[in-house]
Predict the 3D structure of the following.
Amino acid sequence: MSPERTIHLLYDAFARLDAETMATCYAADATFDDEAFSLRGAREIGGMWKMLCGGTRAKGAAVWKLSYRDVRADATGGSAHWDAHYLFSATGRIVDNAIDSRFTFTPEGLIATQRDSFDFWRWSRQALGTPGLLLGWSPILRRKVRATAAANLAAFLARQP
């Protein structure tokens, strides 16, 4: 599969909350990094997508919307921009997040690395309300969000067969 096709497959599946298809886009030893997660290997990455998609289907499907654009890819690297509109389950607040993704690919066209970037302070104001407004710029809140995300994913993966 071409890297560009892999990006389209990933985000088309995400728009449908289809974590199983999303997981097929990654190499076994892939890495994923963003403001909340730092993941190594297909099990962790696929688990994250399964946890996020399942949570959205269970509590926020009525408001879920994902769009993407500006897909660019060659044999080794690529990028895309995506926008997610969703319910942040921990607070019940609506979030509109704009994310830029950078990728590298295996020779087979699978994702080897993915780095997602977004404005953490903007996200935290929407997702967390006043605490995000007051502390979203601080490393303390970033560490707290990352620790909570890691603990949630570890608990989710522990329940998986």
